[in-house]
Design goal:
alpha/beta, about 25% strand, about 190 residues, single chain, seven-stranded mixed sheet, globular, Maf protein, binds inosinic acid, about 30% helix
Length: about 190
């Protein structure tokens, strides 16, 4: 079976992809290939960061691989936290601190439009193919729900009355930025 590296050690993301592709591809994590270093992701855009991570692994291990990068882009904050979503409040990557900072910056803001963007970069046969997933929504004035992770408690996707944190994992994956990008990736791989 063809082996593909997913440049992550996030167990949740790995299980999800493994399950979807199990009949056709063997998905390996960074741990599985003995890559234990911190892969650089210091570019200015989400798309460039996804490429940087995938190319790093490909160049070092010469194996088909893909990487993903995600950010929350808030209109009233000129697209922030964007590429800095994980470390918006501090290097601690603390979800609660990040939400508090967004809520503070958004105090009194009328325009609460935002979107999540995921880009997946796949390096296959020495060339790069990219897949994008976007979900639009609004930033609430306070948290709602306990599920999900990251900014989920304050993000309500357009057309829904629940935040991502109030949805089941299946509901969220069915409409989310990452869900959309992953579907495009899977479709591409299944048609090879
Ligand atoms: P990553 O590129 O998937 O590691 O995501 C970077 C950061 O964006 C995370 O640390 C979270 O703060 C945020 N994030 C990514 N995906 C989601 C999501 O599905 N819901 C809420 N926050 C997310």
């Amino acid at each position: 079976m063809t082996k593909i590296v997913f440049a992550t050690n996030n167990k949740h993301k790995l299980e999800e992809i493994k399950q979807i592709l199990k009949d056709k591809f063997e998905i390996l994590s960074l741990n599985d290939i003995g890559c234990n270093e911190d892969i650089p992701e210091d570019k200015e855009t989400i798309s460039e960061n996804a490429s940087q991570k995938a190319l790093y692994v490909f160049n070092k291990y010469k194996i088909t691989c893909f990487a993903d990068d995600t950010g929350l882009e808030i209109e009233a904050l000129n697209g922030k936290p964007g590429v800095h979503s994980a470390r918006y409040a501090s290097e601690k990557k603390d979800f609660d601190e990040n939400i508090d900072k967004v809520l503070l910056k958004m105090q009194g803001a009328k325009n609460r439009e935002a979107r999540f963007l995921t880009v997946i970069s796949l390096i296959i046969d020495g060339k790069e193919v990219k897949f994008e997933g976007i979900v639009n929504g609004t930033i609430l004035e306070e948290r709602r729900g306990t599920g999900g992770f990251g900014y989920d408690p304050i993000f309500q996707p357009t057309g829904f009355s629940k935040t991502f944190a109030e949805m089941t994992m299946e509901e969220k994956n069915g409409i989310s930025h990452r869900g959309i990008a992953v579907k495009k990736l899977v479709n591409y791989l299944n048609n090879l």
